Amino acid sequence: MTRLYFNEVATRDGFQNECNFIPTGTKVELIDELSLCGYAKIEVSSFTSPKAIPMLRDADEVMHRIKRVAGVEYTVLVPNMRGAERAMLAQADELNLVMSVSETHNLSNLRMPRANSFSVLAEVIREVDGKTPINVSLSCCFGCPMEGNVAEADVLAYAKRFADLGVRGITICDTTGMAHPAQVSRMVAGFQQAFDAAFPALQLTLHFHNTRGMGLANVLAAVQGGVTRFDASLGGLGGCPYAPGASGNIASEEAIHMLQASGHDTGIDIDRLMKIARQLPHIVSHDVPSQLVKSGLIGDLHPVPEYVRELRKHYEGSAG
Amino acid sequence: MTRLYFNEVATRDGFQNECNFIPTGTKVELIDELSLCGYAKIEVSSFTSPKAIPMLRDADEVMHRIKRVAGVEYTVLVPNMRGAERAMLAQADELNLVMSVSETHNLSNLRMPRANSFSVLAEVIREVDGKTPINVSLSCCFGCPMEGNVAEADVLAYAKRFADLGVRGITICDTTGMAHPAQVSRMVAGFQQAFDAAFPALQLTLHFHNTRGMGLANVLAAVQGGVTRFDASLGGLGGCPYAPGASGNIASEEAIHMLQASGHDTGIDIDRLMKIARQLPHIVSHDVPSQLVKSGLIGDLHPVPEYVRELRKHYEGSAG
């Protein structure tokens, strides 16, 4: 029974992509409820410019108002030194930096070449100087929706450059749901080969999207390869602009439900989490991709219909 | 690279659950298109009473009108001897018999105890007497929505009873999407241990639903365990009455896409199949669960936006 660690990203990766602003109080309540579910980490918000991501313009207030629970790390996305300063002032437990391994996607998303992004993030890492742990999320590690293939060697090379700068963790992201299980197995093995000996404390997290239905199959492949840390988003919130109407992030409750059913220890109270997941459609005012919210857990049984009881009696009578 | 074999069940398991009758001509056209995709098998329809399943009341006509393609087996669901006679008259390549391993589900679905169902099916098998190959689909092998747990030993015991009667294949069905990957691995290993030596020619097929999001993860676990035959339904058609709004069968195109990407040979022309899958929402007049229909294949790239081209030029200029 492997101990697995989940980072809940719905209030950052999910809400960032919503059309309507989720009220600050609702965000705080949701995070406070999630804090009681057993997550290792919650990505609370993003300290980006309110102009860039208006949906998360209340990051400082949210961080200030949430009730922190011991054992849960509250991480925030940070694009640059200004964001890092705000995050540290807000006493974030971790700064999550992000850049893409695909040049075209980086230009598209961060409006600068990868080399420039790397310089910006390297500067943040040097300035923070170990005062707050840093994670780097690498986007498009399994493919770019515009470029196509992304070389595993490029992913490992960027991970290595950040590991050399002393970051605590690397998140390998399948930003647009292009990963398939065999690729995940290869990537995980490649990462372990490159880092297990040289950087034994480096935390590897996998971040999958369910855009092409392969999300949980990829989680399974990653767990089989020895990965113990995952990002996931309650309800599967967090759409992909390249696939309108398709699923976004893997749904936390679906991944956790599958892994617990298979005997893994996720530390999560799944019943408590399901209650929160069922509130999500009301919070975001639309249906969410999660199937589990509609179907219920494996153990949520259905009553036996009256006609089946009658049939059973009938046959028991005729047999006796 | 394992050769995998797919049985397309959309026109039976899918259409059976539709609210509106799909016109016979539409069914015939769809099956004729599917016949050109490389399927090992197509479950065309069901020779049940038109009262029991009105949506498939045209089974005889559909079987008569389809253009058969060499290499594709055309199978039909058959509940009893009357159905078997109609199916053989229609020159079905295989009869697919069905009963549930759960007593409550069998009463609910077939309105008789399992013992009675077994007698009915055993009689069919004896009467058919090898003139047409027979497959038996066992429902609720991974759990019953009313009873809960279903013992693996019960599944293997029913499979053994049918194997002893000389059937060609057994399909182990996760009728309501309750299977999880570890359970699939155990079931497959148990089946192999029970049958590989004694019945080396017995064909094992796995039938999964995506009701709780685990469909493709279960396919992956089954393939890893050595399973080579799968049922799947184009678009993911085929709802589950116990989970309104949730996904039904695994989507053929999603399973095939994942397995091909991972290096397996499914024999399927995925591009051709995707064109057909994209017509499905028009045929059934509603959205279908398949994510892949919305997102496109991994290789379906998106154009680089103009602003990204401009940015790239700008930075190349400033670098030079």
Automatic annotation (TrEMBL), chains A, B:
InterPro entries: Aldolase_TIM, HMGL, PYR_CT. The lineage of its organism: Bacteria, Pseudomonadati, Pseudomonadota, Betaproteobacteria, Rhodocyclales. Pfam families: HMGL-like. Residues 4-274 form the Pyruvate carboxyltransferase domain. One of its GO terms (molecular function) is hydroxymethylglutaryl-CoA lyase activity. GO terms for biological process: ketone body biosynthetic process; L-leucine catabolic process. The keyword Lyase applies. NCBIfam families: PRK05692.1. This is Hydroxymethylglutaryl-CoA lyase. Coiled coil: none annotated. Transmembrane segments: none annotated. Belongs to the HMG-CoA lyase family. PROSITE patterns: PYR_CT. The keyword Ubl conjugation does not apply. Keywords: Lyase, Metal-binding.
